[in-house]
Amino acid sequence: MLQAVIMDHDGTMAPTMERQHKWFNYYWSHQINKERTMGKEFPYQDFKSFMKMYNEKINHPLEVQNVYDFLNLDCDMNDFSHPVWPSYKSFALENPSRLYSGMKEAIEDIWNLGRLTKDFKVNRRLRWGLILVTVGILFQVIYLKMMF
To answer: Measured between alpha carbons, how far apart are the two ends of the chain, in Å?
Structure first.
C-alpha cells in the first residue's frame, strides 16, 4: 500500500542551482568578505563553470561548506549565529526559489491521486497514476538538467 511520496526539492522541483550561483556571487561581494576577496570579481561569473565547481565540492564531506572554503568566504555552516545566516535569509527572501513550470500542478496531481480507498481497483489505478506522474516529473527534470 502506498504510504508516502518522497520528493527532493533542490534542482528537482525548483531551479535552485541558479539561485546558489546568484547567492555566492552576492556573498562574494558582501562586506564581511571584503578583505578575503580583495575587491576581485567573483571568479565564477559563468554559470556552467560555477555549476561544475559547486558539484565537485558538495560531493565530499562537509558539502556546501567546501564551496565557502574553496572560495575563501567567511562561513561556518554549523554556527547559526554566524553572520552568513542572516545574510542568506535576507537574500532568500529577496530571491525566492520558484518551482519549475508545471511542478505545482504535478504535485497537486500526486496529492489528489494519493487518496487511497477500500476499493482495490481504484487503488491500483491510483498507484499507476502516481508512477506515471512521477516518471513524467523525472523526465522533465532530466531534460532540464541536460540543457545546462
So the answer is: 37
